[in-house]
């Protein structure tokens, strides 16, 4: 897709400049009109088409180019290393681990680059290296101190245009979900949201793959010479998994939910290259002022980082059942989770919901109390280290994924566990 200016119709009035939110217009000299200039579209165009309606002279049109980018220009894997108040989000470290795995399968010289954006965040580079980044791209400016959609989008998009990464991964956090689609639009490339699995699409990597044990070569189509990644995510309410490719444009972009990918073992003292990217950003590029950041009560439910989660479902019978779950969680040092059925019934706030449309979790122990184990719930917790199912129904799907199955009434079982815990503490 491209935006084309019909020079014969353009009066050089600049209305398109005003309509364009991306600063994607410039003038170029032209003899054929009174002002002696016509408008020209630059690389910042994100094909939003606002200019088409703004132009009173029908001088702008959208054209399908059918062109494919020269994919060989794009190299390396970038991970948006999201930080808040100078602290890296866990998902950034998980994605560095995943990036490392993919890089190993793509080629020996593919690097994993952590992209750090903010102000006074130099100290975070060491942590990125310790978790497996080969390189850190450091983008700092006082205007980037607070996350703003405009500011982060601009500087990362500019860096992508300049350095051309092959793959960019973001955590599917509130910030990642806000940022990634905007950057994808400005780079005129695809984005697969909420991936649960990434694989290298490999026919041209076959020779390399033969040397690797992690890749199943029999799944490769030798006729298919395209490269890229296969991005898999649940679709149609989790009833099937869709695998999505981005064959014609680069970079390939995915958001990945926290807790899905594996962090690498931390290597203290690991080092790598730090590339300082000086962003071109002005106050006028940012259209909002962040007055204050207020942490909502909902966000205080930190399911993502919890080691132990005690979740309750419809089997609790009513809202008061969550008092028992809270008591249980307090006793074992856990956090309260829930199924969607309990949320939909109005028994607990949505911020506690685990699953496909809730939070994806990976605690050390997940207690599923009165939760049947619907596929959408399992999608958010089945990679927990240990799953304990407490359910009256010995044949419910949760029992199939559980490491420990307790068949019984949760109102009898949980008080017994609490009592045993008390005894052990004495
Ligand atoms: P139920 O399936 O009704 O199970 C209740 C269980 O409690 C049963 O197994 C029963 O045997 C047991 N039980 C009853 N009484 C007792 C007792 N006294 N002691 C012990 N056990 C007892 N669901 C999610 O959880 N998270 C999501 O993110 C999510 N996203 C969805 C997205 C879409 C698009 C759709 C269509 C659905 C989604 N769902 C999600 C809903 C999901 O399909 C199920 O409906 C839901 O998970 C069921 O919740 P539950 O297990 O608590 O209830």
TrEMBL record:
PROSITE patterns: 4FE4S_FER_1, 4FE4S_FER_2. Pfam families: ETF, ETF_alpha, Fer4. One of its GO terms (biological process) is fatty acid beta-oxidation using acyl-CoA dehydrogenase. The keyword Iron-sulfur applies. The keyword Cytoplasm does not apply. Residues 1-30, 36-65 form the 4Fe-4S ferredoxin-type domain. Keywords: Iron, Iron-sulfur, Metal-binding. SUPFAM superfamilies: 4Fe-4S ferredoxins, Adenine nucleotide alpha hydrolases-like, DHS-like NAD/FAD-binding domain. InterPro entries: 4Fe4S_Fe-S-bd (IPR017896), 4Fe4S_Fe_S_CS (IPR017900), DHS-like_NAD/FAD-binding_dom (IPR029035), ETF_a/b_N (IPR014730), ETF_a/FixB (IPR001308), ETF_alpha_N (IPR033947), ETF_asu_C (IPR014731), Rossmann-like_a/b/a_fold (IPR014729). It comes from the Bacteria. SMART domains: ETF. GO terms for molecular function: electron transfer activity; flavin adenine dinucleotide binding; iron-sulfur cluster binding; metal ion binding. Belongs to the ETF alpha-subunit/FixB family. This is Electron transfer flavoprotein alpha subunit apoprotein. It comes from Aminicella lysinilytica.
